[in-house]
């Protein structure tokens, strides 16, 4: 559900949106600094018409020649159809709420920061970004657009995301692959925990529909190292039962299964020509995004 006007006036909500915007801006600045120039280039859109400037419009789109002649400010409007439409698929299941001790972000917060940064980069190019929040199904779909007000809406939806106990990755991927008619860029931000064969079939469906696909596998360092030593009660985040175990007795098998899952995911993504990035929440989001965009440029 979208945020209500009352919720949007809540200082906590306003503060959360502002913090997300600040984090995203820092990531974007870090990316551009790291790459020395925009990671996307060569896109163009056609000029359509002028309209009078209103507060909130981006200053860079003011037509200064018209302003000099008329002594009034007008901004350039472009054709709504952009060169690229991107769809940011953010997993909001309960497992994404996990946050290890002394970690800067939960997995969902980290995914939201990356999604907001991606949207900002795309819109700077006059490309369009949309948002899909999903857990046990699609919970929110915001179609791609390329306006400043649309970017604010994406931030608000990310802040308002509600989690559910279960992730249904494959059905969500199949559903969205059929819904998105025009070829575009699909960016998946999820821990991808689920049946690996089903997950890969869902990703392959996007590729079958000729979409370009980028997957950010968001994980906490606890999940990659299993650092627990003392007798520990593990609470299932997606309807699994609680387990009281000695972690030292299951660490080797856990890591074997986790690494096997990741290896299978990597092989499948290579086979389907899907970009895969494993992002650990201890890594600076700007660094994670810069590394990916740098490797993307080198391949072109």
Q: Which labels suit this protein?
A:
two-stranded antiparallel ribbon, globular, six-stranded mixed sheet, 45% helix, 300 residues, alpha/beta, single chain, 10 helices, disordered N terminus
Give the secondary structure arrangement, pairings included.
Layout: H1 5-8, H2 11-35, E1 47-52, H3 64-70, E2 74-78, E3 85-91, H4 107-124, E4 128-134, E5 138-145, H5 148-160, H6 169-179, E6 185-190, H7 196-208, E7 212-219, H8 221-225, E8 232-234, E9 243-245, H9 247-271, E10 275-280, H10 285-298
Parallel strand pairs: 3-4, 3-6, 6-7, 7-10
Antiparallel strand pairs: 1-2, 4-5, 8-9
Helix pairs in contact: 2-4, 2-5, 2-10, 4-5, 6-7
In short:
By secondary structure, the chain is an alpha/beta fold.
What does this structure look like?
The chain is an alpha/beta fold. 30% of the residues are buried. Helices cover 45% and strands 20% of the residues. The strands form three sheets. The chain has a six-stranded mixed β-sheet, sandwiched between helices. The radius of gyration is 21 Å and the shape is globular.
């Amino acid at each position: 559900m979208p945020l209500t006007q009352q919720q949007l006036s809540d200082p906590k909500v306003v503060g959360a949106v502002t913090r997300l915007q600040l984090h995203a801006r820092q990531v974007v600045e870090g990316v551009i600094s790291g790459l020395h120039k925009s990671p996307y280039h060569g896109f163009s859109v056609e000029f359509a018409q002028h309209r009078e400037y209103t507060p909130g419009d981006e200053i860079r789109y003011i037509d200064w020649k018209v302003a000099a002649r008329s002594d009034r400010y007008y901004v350039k409007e472009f054709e709504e159809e952009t060169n690229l439409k991107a769809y940011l698929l953010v997993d909001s299941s309960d497992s994404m709420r996990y946050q290890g001790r002394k970690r800067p972000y939960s997995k969902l917060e980290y995914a939201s920061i990356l999604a907001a940064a991606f949207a900002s980069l795309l819109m700077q190019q006059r490309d369009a970004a949309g948002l899909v929040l999903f857990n046990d199904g699609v919970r929110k779909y915001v179609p791609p657009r390329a306006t400043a007000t649309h970017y604010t809406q994406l931030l608000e939806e990310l802040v308002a995301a509600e989690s559910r106990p279960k992730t249904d990755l494959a059905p969500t991927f199949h559903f969205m692959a059929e819904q998105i008619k025009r070829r575009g860029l699909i960016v998946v931000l999820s821990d991808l925990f689920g049946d690996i064969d089903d997950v890969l079939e869902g990703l392959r469906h996007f590729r079958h529909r000729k979409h370009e696909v980028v997957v950010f596998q968001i994980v906490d360092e606890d999940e990659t190292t299993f650092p627990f030593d003392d007798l520990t009660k593990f609470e299932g985040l997606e309807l699994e039962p609680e387990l009281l175990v000695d972690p030292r007795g299951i660490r080797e098998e856990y890591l074997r299964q986790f690494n096997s899952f990741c290896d299978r995911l990597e092989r499948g993504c290579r086979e389907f020509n899907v970009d895969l990035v494993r992002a650990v929440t201890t890594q600076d989001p700007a660094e994670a995004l810069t590394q990916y965009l740098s490797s993307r440029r080198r391949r072109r």
